[in-house]
Amino acid sequence: MDTFGLLANGLAAAMQWQNLIYAFIGVTLGTAVGVLPGIGPALTVALLLPVTYRLDPAGSLIMFAGIYYGGMYGGSTTSILLNTPGESASIVTALEGNKMARKGRGGPALATAAIGSFVAGLIATLALAFVAPWVVRIAIAFGPADYFALMVLAFITVSAAFGDSPLRGITALFIGLGLGVIGIDLQTGQARLSFGIPDLLDGIEVTTLAVALFAIGETLAIAATSANVKDEVIAVKGSIWMTLEDWKRSWPAWLRGGFIGFPIGAMPAGGAEIGTFFSYAAERRLTKHPEEFGEGAIEGVAGPEAANNASAAGTLVPLLTLGLPTSATAAIMLAGFQQFGLQPGPLLFTSNASLVWALIASLLVANFMLLVLNLPLIGLWVRLLTIPKPWLYSGILLFATLGTLGANGAMSGSLGPIRFSFELMMLLGFGILGYVLRRFGYPIAPVVIGLILGPLAEQQLRRALAISQGDPVVLVHSPLAIGLYIVAAAAVLVPLYLRLRGKGEVLRQLAADED
Amino acid sequence: MSSGTDLQRRPDGAALVIALILLLISLVIFWQTSTMRLPPLQARVGPQVFPYGIAAGLFLLSIGTAISAWRGKFPARTRDNYGPVAWVIAGLLGQILLVSWAGFALGSGVLVACTAKAFGRGPLWFTFLCGTVFALVIWFIFARGLQLSLPTGPLERLLP
Question: Which UniProt keywords are given for this protein, alphabetically ordered (chain B) (predicted)?
């Protein structure tokens, strides 16, 4: 069957009413957490994993994808109205978007972000549908050594391209890899680094780590600085509709953003923010209104917002076809697949074709829903920003502990006569780790990706070396692996160079725009 | 921060501590891995290779971190207030020690009260009450509705 046929079948599955409900819950939750500061899509999916354990796999995964997409839509709202980007992918949006909001053009800024996300989301989802089978065909021929090289590449790109320091990125990755070793080695049954604690024999749960780093760590970081920061929500004044002029200036930016964002998400070239930087730079160079840049140019919102949505769809290419997560949310989604006993990779496209295509098609559905949810209901979402911090963060912590207790609530620790949950203790410990990492400028995503991808990489490495009877030359035996290692080396050097340039530009902007 | 010449910046003490912690973790992994008893019939690439690699990596990273800290290359940090941080941690610890016997609602009430206090909302008895009632509702939805196994205490037993 060709791609169109598969996609049509997937669309039929995605349009079943229960899947529509899952998609709707997903996009609604996703938009809400995207708007709310302090929680993002990765945390939300991690919290929902224990709840969805008994639900239908396809429906749950459709919901997770909806959350991912919704988070990208919602993130722009905080950037534009609050000037505090909820995630790194909307830093650039804040540059022009907040300026527009201050000039009373918040409505058109939000509209161009939403419609741009929709346009780019459609382009990227179709691109995903056509690129994925092609990647699968190549990936079938991959041996263990090639997979290992691919994972090394992913490790390098996610850690060295995230954040502003390769040293700190790689340190974060190695913390994750170290945590991944804990537990029973699946091939020999040996306990590793478990220090005689029975709870550690099963390894560290990805969800516990993610919830701790994102929810507890973030709450601690906000609590520590909340006295110094004053948030100012800018009310949406005037018409939310874009003028004809706005449309004319936005649509080329949307298309460019979509085509820049998708390959960068898919490559894997690191975070979605790289695409937004490229898109912003492109719009700046191509604009007919250079004087407006830094003062609220609509292209500067349209392009990057389109790019970050497109790269969100792009990250699903390596995730679905190779089982390779390149963002924190993708890593948690991989844990979601594993929870249902599914291993993303080329085989998934033959063994669970209907599920994969329903998931891809559901992205199209989610995009339509998000457009409807976001344009007319923007006022409702903005009201979420007025939830007082004490209630917001105690709610986040309440749900974080609820999810952890629900997933693994055995009261296996004891302090005198009091029994306590070892899992909650780990949640607290990793939460403090998350706070320290944030405080010292370490990126969080590589820790999560290291934990989930480390054991898979080790498995491939040992398989490759077992086949070659311990000869390490096998690792660089195929041209593909050599190529991947070269790309990995380039991935350290090139983004560093681009980042210094791109970031310098953005930083200069920020410095010039401070009022 | 300028990425260029900031030679005037002093060594960063806290970052040096991080380098030390990384070094310690690396040594612990080395030590733990070396004490593993391997079965006699062992593939040449056994369960020790990966941990050793990670330990070696962490060792190198701790040196890199130390150099970076010595040159003051870490991003500038804002002055943090540790009071609120301590309140949040106290709330989490309180919940951890309470849930097994006092139940989810009361334990979470303490968590909510402490967190609200950290963000400047009081008084404690009021936020505790709100938190407990809210957590009881949540408990009812998730434990009864979604069959999630959540700790039960005196308050939860009152519910049908």
Answer: Membrane, Transmembrane, Transmembrane helix
